[in-house]
From TrEMBL:
This is Reverse transcriptase domain-containing protein. It comes from Pleurodeles waltl (Iberian ribbed newt). The lineage of its organism: Eukaryota, Metazoa, Chordata, Craniata, Vertebrata. It comes from the Eukaryota. It holds the Pfam family Exo_endo_phos. SUPFAM superfamilies: DNA/RNA polymerases (SSF56672), DNase I-like (SSF56219). One of its GO terms (molecular function) is catalytic activity. Residues 448-721 form the Reverse transcriptase domain. Signal peptide: none annotated.
Length: 833
């Protein structure tokens, strides 16, 4: 649970008896690269070694047992001796004090003095300074109260080497809250000062009806006062967002002040009583201090009760149902999202957050820079030489109609909740709650933007977050996938255009293209490939090969002029094309990495990954290439008797070519790809493309040298395809079975009942089985189905004896069952599908 609360890296040392332990939690925003860890089997310390902003750092959390201080300090000596050079933070509950005269109230025993002498000698021998005492040399504060002895002591300490103590800019003891030990907080200098706070309206606050009503009242009042005062709906809309942002901050701040005022008074009172107790050591003052601390604890818990109640209701309602909560419990925490370093073109490493952010910004500035526009001699022959499917006139007029308010409201309603908002910080939930107020003015803003050909300032700005394609993350910017976080206005307009285009795109795209097309899926491409291999591998005497094409940054390099020309050739109306152009008229973006936001840079090409319209536009963009390859007389496909030949199969940017006589067809394919790249901007990446000759065509690959050759197996759309049928099971089913066993074993520790386990199995395991069974080319032995059912049964009953027959669980919920799937039923449905 801690790993899910923003602290995605948790390192701990536990003890079997549960009497001791130490833990270090690193927040996801801390750009620390962890290189090594060391934990004590006795649960006394945990060590995390790494680098921060390119400098080495060591974090050590300790728990000193009440007895055996000398042995504990000896073990710390060994740990400290093995730490690499760099800043070291060593802190925790030592159960010992350094200076009894300042750190202990009451009479000082001989045993405590001896322990303090050993402790102080250890700190001096390693050149360690206690941070809080360095900043408060004569102040008396305590972190632990012993009710049995009626004494107080300061035993929670943080040490640093004397050479690094100048990096500390502050240290304080916070008031005690829920815990019986107060937090110790220190500030370190030298951290990157360029971090920018990114404001976002927390969608959780919108579940408070009073808060939402105040937001609605503000919006209503704003439009009543300002409607008609400005002529531009865009200006009115931009100013509305600015005032709404300020109002949202004010409402939250005022609520926080009201909630924290009582707590602040109690904390001040506790500090006064603590100082009185230090000087007087009065039992009555100690009792008052104890009561105040209990009030602080009660007040702090009361202020969070509404959050706990909402969380408990969410867990109760969704804990054992298919949903985000169950998926959140079942999946592993995301890998560390902090990028510790990036390699520049010169080979040097950028390690500070601002350098890394600017490095990504420079990379994407070059990537999204406007492609040299094709001349009429290059672009026109490419598109004018082929016939693209065209939208019928009646349908075109319907798609080209002006946007109405009903479409805007429908698009707002269909927005997915729980998504990260764009740069303006307003989530989709706000638009849903206030759609009746915002909808008409949003429509007016769209109408004005269409006439002017551009949005108001900052509306078409995006925030790019990067996700590593591989684990561990690479040091190169190209190894990260950019995801654009768009403002909700852009999402709404994109959703409207996508819903209109979705009506006609099956008529504009050949059935060979299955990506994001209605009624089409990956199984059409994979089954077609299996069938072709089964037929031609043994019967064909013509040299045959498969060519899998990969385009370099396909979605990010699309030329906008080519896109507009394709839409024109497809017969889409002028209004639709103007709205598409509006989405790509001078947009800008910033890169957010490690909590740092780079400077804005212009975007001159590409379709945004994260936009609902992008997949459909890309399908139209790549269709001219498919037509060129499909109709070129110099390219031969795989023949079928009395049927059209197989030649092209597409799924988004995954292109598979079936070519006969590769020595003749291959060079022509590369020539057409080069012509298409000049016009569209989509450039072939030969290193990630593959050439797979069939067994009888192994010698027909001399026509190219840059594309890798695979002769036995390859991966296509998530399925391993083997030219040797006996290896298909080993490549696909065996690894899947192993992963399923591992996941089921890991999930047994989750606090789920029988219904929750069934829901988890259907949500996490069933899709994997369905995808495999829909695309597997050979009969699967009945023994494997029995094994899968046995694993499911053991998981659902948590290795206990089943109390219901499996057939009873397999009934649907309307017949007294729980709709528990079995592998045989799944396989039968896959066959019929």
């Amino acid at each position: 649970m801690l790993a899910r609360g923003g602290y995605d890296r948790v390192y701990h040392a536990g003890f079997s008896r549960g009497s001791r332990g130490a833990a270090i939690l690193l927040h996801r925003s801390l750009p620390m690269l962890v290189t090594a860890t060391q934990s004590d089997p006795q649960g006394r310390f945990i060590v995390v070694k790494g680098t921060l902003h390119g400098s080495p750092i060591n974090l050590v959390c300790v728990y000193g047992p009440p007895a055996g201080l000398d042995a504990f300090l000896l073990s710390l000596c060994r740990v400290a001796a093995g730490l690499p050079q760099g800043t070291t933070l060593l802190g925790g509950d030592f159960n010992a004090v350094l200076n009894p005269s300042l750190d202990v109230s009451g009479e000082i025993s001989t045993n405590r003095s001896a322990r303090a002498a050993s402790f102080s000698s250890w700190a001096e021998s390693f050149g360690m300074c206690e941070v809080w005492r360095t900043w408060h040399p004569r102040e008396r504060r305590y972190t632990h109260t012993s009710a049995a002895h009626s004494t107080q002591s300061r035993i929670d300490l943080i040490f640093m080497p004397a050479l690094d103590i100048n990096n500390v800019t502050g240290a304080e003891l916070l008031p005690r809250g829920v815990s019986d030990h107060p937090p110790v907080r220190i500030w370190l200098g030298g951290t990157d000062p360029t971090r920018r706070l990114i404001w976002r309206l927390n969608a959780w606050n919108l579940q408070d009806n009073d808060y939402t009503q105040e937001i609605k009242n503000h919006l209503t009042q704003y439009f009543e006062l300002n409607l008609g005062s400005v002529q531009s709906p865009g200006t009115l809309w931009a100013a509305c967002k600015a005032t709404l942002r300020g109002q949202a901050k004010y409402l939250l701040r005022s609520r926080e002040r009201a909630r924290d005022s009582q707590l602040s008074k109690l904390e001040t009172k506790a500090l006064i009583l603590e100082r009185q107790q230090m000087t007087s050591e009065s039992a009555s003052v100690l009792r008052q201090l104890t009561r105040v601390r209990e009030e602080i604890k009660h007040t702090a818990l009361e202020s969070e009760k509404h959050i706990w109640r909402a969380s408990a209701a969410r867990i109760y309602g969704w804990g054992d149902k298919n949903g985000k909560l169950l998926h959140w419990l079942a999946t592993r925490p995301l890998a560390n999202r902090v990028i510790p370093e990036i390699m520049e073109d010169s080979g040097s490493l950028s390690k500070t957050p601002i350098e890394i952010a600017q490095r990504f910004a420079s990379y994407y500035t070059r990537l999204y820079a406007e492609h040299p526009r094709p001349t009429a001699e290059k672009e026109s022959p490419l598109l004018n030489g082929i016939t693209l499917p065209s939208v019928p006139l009646a349908i075109r007029d319907r798609i080209d109609e002006p946007i109405d308010l009903a479409e805007v409201i429908s698009a707002i309603t269909s927005l997915a909740p729980g998504k990260t908002p764009g740069p303006d910080g307003f989530p989709a939930e706000l638009y849903k709650r206030c759609s009746d107020i915002l909808g008409p003015h949003l429509l007016s803003m769209y109408e004005e933007a269409e006439k002017q050909g551009r949005f108001p300032n900052e509306i078409d700005q995006a925030t790019i977050v990067v996700i590593p394609k591989t684990q561990p993350p690479s040091r190169h910017c190209s190894a990260y996938r950019p995801i654009s976080l768009l403002n909700t206005e852009i999402k709404v307009l994109s959703s409207i255009l996508a819903s209109r285009l979705r009506e006609v795109i099956p008529t504009l795209v050949h059935p060979d293209h299955c990506g994001f097309m209605p009624t089409r899926s990956t199984r059409h491409c994979i089954r077609r490939l299996h069938l072709a291999l089964a037929h031609h591998t043994t019967l064909s005497h013509t040299p045959l090969a498969l060519l899998l094409l990969d385009f370099e940054k396909a979605f990010d390099t699309v030329d906008w002029s080519f896109l507009d020309h394709v839409l024109l050739k497809n017969g889409l109306g002028p209004k639709f094309r103007r709205l598409v152009k509006l989405l790509y008229s001078n947009p800008t973006a910033r890169v957010q990495v490690n909590g740092v936001v780079s400077d804005a840079f212009p975007i001159g090409r590409g379709t945004r990954q994260g936009c609902p319209l992008s997949p459909l536009l890309f399908a139209l963009i790549i269709e001219p290439l498919a037509i060129l390859l499909r109709n070129d007389p110099l390219i031969e496909g795989w023949p079928w008797p009395n049927c059209p030949e197989d030649r092209v199969a597409l799924y988004a940017d995954d292109v598979l070519l079936y070519i006969s006589n590769p020595a003749r067809s291959g060079p022509r394919v590369l020539q057409l790809l080069s012509l298409f790249a000049e016009a569209s901007g989509l450039i072939l990446n030969p290193n990630k493309s593959l050439l797979v000759p069939l067994p009888r065509s192994r010698d027909c690959v001399d026509w190219q040298q840059s594309i890798p050759v695979r002769r036995n197996s390859f991966k296509y759309l998530g399925i391993y395809i083997s030219l040797l049928p006996e290896l298909t099971w080993e490549l696909n089913v065996t690894p899947l079975t192993r992963r399923i066993k591992t996941d089921l074993q890991r999930w047994r520790a989750l606090p789920l009942n029988l219904l929750g386990r069934i829901a988890l199995y259907k949500m996490m395991i069933l899709p994997r089985l369905l995808y495999l069974l829909q695309n597997f080319p050979h009969p699967i032995p009945k023994k494997w189905f029995g094994e899968m059912d046995s694993l499911a049964r053991q998981f659902m009953w948590n290795d206990a004896r089943p109390r219901l027959a499996l057939k009873t669980c397999q009934r649907d919920i309307y017949n007294g069952g729980w709709a528990c799937p079995t592998s045989i039923i799944i396989s039968t449905r896959c066959m019929w599908s």
